[in-house]
């Protein structure tokens, strides 16, 4: 392989080769998946059997252990996409394209899950499935942005060209999301303010925080595993498309 | 600067001459507004309460409708490729097009809005505020629209995709646009909303030509 003998090979350059990337990261998938499973088992055990019911909300408080991590991921995945978009635009790193593309549907799924669990939780506690409250509305808008990005990816035939255009749009969205969040908060707010990361420390008892943090890591690792697998699939899909094109050209000649 | 003005004049002449697109967009705006009473009932009190929102939604939809003609005709006849090679920076060309888009797809709506004000039983102070908020807010819609149109110009199904992409980004414009009109109870925040709206428009107008030009330049090969 010429890539092995080329001068000045850093791990960064090596990752730029899709085959090398898959070869380097495939061994990570199973250990990470196992870690995710362990975290989920522990987190769910804590969430269901070893955490108190809320004195006001009762057992419905356990929805939080799914709701809060997915809501966090809905923003974290967009950050991943924005960083990958920078990778595409500045370094033209081939794997940044792939990472951007496979993150979009995952982000949409986590955002939809956060909205779904939120409305399931809202029904017994607020008495309504949906309220036009600041945080809920901005999460809904975020979901629309994710879906728009997925649609934009599908509109292009040439994925390399698509990557650059989507990267620009992702960054435009990244600039806009804080503005949307601010404007929606200005418009209407009912949701409780941030209560885990506050200047005075967490406002929750440890018995609830422990399962919350475990689930937090479980979902984050779940995202990592799914992202890696989706990237491998995307690399393989592109390889197949290239081979098909080469075959079609061969049979035409 | 001369190139910028040349593009501006060319697009303005093309938009106003012949094709009748401007009239279609104005018609769409008036019909959208006029059709709402059929859906919500002819109650005057209710209509005059929600009239600013209806006018904003109608203007928003009409401007999204006009997005496709921003770059697509130039893409189809190859003018866009020439712009890319021209001495004038592409961002300046895009800026000229955004201005023309505003002049031909937003200004006529504002001129036609008295018609909707009568149909929707708006009183004069509300109507005056609506016109001011439309004047300040529609430039932002035009600027965001340019990004959507530029991102989708090389795709075949772009016409449908651009509004989907742009609508979520326009949420703040709608919020502050309608917020600047609201005369209901509570503290009067209309002034603050108007300032936010102006800030949004200025920022979007300043930055979007560069993003749109980048998208056009890198979307082509």
Average the pLDDT over all residues of chain B and give the rounded result.
87
Unreliable stretches covering 5 or more consecutive residues of chain B: none
Q: How many discrete structural domains of chain A? A: 1
Identify the overall geometry of chain A: globular
Helical content of chain B, roughly? over 70%
DSSP summary, beta strand count of chain B: 0
Largest sheet of chain A: none
Sheet with the most strands, sense and barrel status of chain B: none
Averaging pLDDT over every residue of chain A, what do you get?
Answer: 84
Contiguous helical run count of chain A? 8
State the distance separating the first and last CA atoms of chain B: 27 Å
Structural class of chain B: mainly alpha
Helix-strand string of chain A:
HHHHHHHH
What is the quaternary state of this protein? heterodimer
Strand content of chain B: under 5%
Radius of gyration of chain A: 21 Å
GO molecular function (chain A): heme binding; heme transmembrane transporter activity
Function (chain A): Required for the export of heme to the periplasm for the biogenesis of c-type cytochromes.
Family (chain A): Belongs to the CcmC/CycZ/HelC family.
Keywords (chain A): Cell inner membrane, Cell membrane, Cytochrome c-type biogenesis, Membrane, Transmembrane, Transmembrane helix, Transport
Short description:
Chain A has 253 residues and is mostly helical. Chain A has helices at 2-5, 11-16, 18-49, 64-91, 94-126, 134-155, 159-187, 206-252. Helix content of chain B is 81%, strand content 0%.
Detailed description of the structure:
The complex is a heterodimer of chains A (253) and B (221). Chain A has 253 residues and is mainly α. In chain A, 79% of the residues lie in helices and 0% in strands. Chain A has helices at residues 2-5, 11-16, 18-49, 64-91, 94-126, 134-155, 159-187, 206-252. In chain A, 31% of the residues are buried. The model of chain A has no long low-confidence stretch (mean pLDDT 84). Chain B has one domain. Chain B has helices spanning 2-16, 21-40, 44-65, 72-76, 79-85, 90-105, 107-119, 124-152, 158-169, 171-179, 190-219. In chain B, α2 (21-40) runs antiparallel to α3. The radius of gyration of chain B is 18 Å and the shape is elongated. The chains are: A mainly alpha (253), B mainly alpha (221).
